[in-house]
Amino acid sequence: MDTGSLVNIIFKEVLDQMMVEGFDLDPITTTLYGFTGHALQPLGQIVPLLSLWSGEQRVKKMDCFTVVDVLSSFNGILGRLALSDFQAVANTFNQKLNFPIGRGVGVVRGDQKSA
Q1: Using CA atoms, how far apart are residues 46 and 24, in angstroms rounded to an integer?
Q2: Rounded CA separation 35/59 (Å)
Q3: Distance between CA atoms of residues 83 and 90, nearest Å
């Protein structure tokens, strides 16, 4: 999650590893700035079904992801758009993402070792 990023990002390498089929990249002409320290031209956009879950409860939403071909230690980045769509609150200090689920609050916890 990146509360400073306007767009959601998924990396081409991740899509390749997932062997995702049936996703045609929609063209995009917008250049990304500040992401890698220089201007970056995305490969396109996809709109996959995204799930957040906590225990047995799950929330699903379709959300737009910009596909970029750069190396990263992350699989993707949830930006402000996804956080808003899920009504999620990011707690970066504790590496938690809280979101409404049913009548409660779901929590996704980060992994310090992976980070």
Answers
A1: 7
A2: 28
A3: 8
With CA atoms as reference, report the closest residue to 32 among 41, 43, 23, 24. 41
| pTM for the whole structure | 0.83
Q: Which of 30, 84, 31, 33 is nearest to 61 (CA)?
A: 84
Per-residue pLDDT of 27-37, as tens digits, reads 998 898 876 77
Token couple for 63: 């959300």
Kindly report the three-state secondary structure assignment for every residue of the chain. Answer: CCCCCCCCEEEHHHHHHHCCCCCCCECCCCCECCCCCCCECCCEEECCEEEEEECCEEEEEECCEEEECCCCCCCEECCHHHHHHCCCEEECCCCEEEEEECCEEEEEECCCCCC
State the residue for tokens 């190396």.
71
32 Rama class: left (phi>0) / alpha (psi -120 to 50) / beta: beta
Report residue 60 as tokens. 């699903």
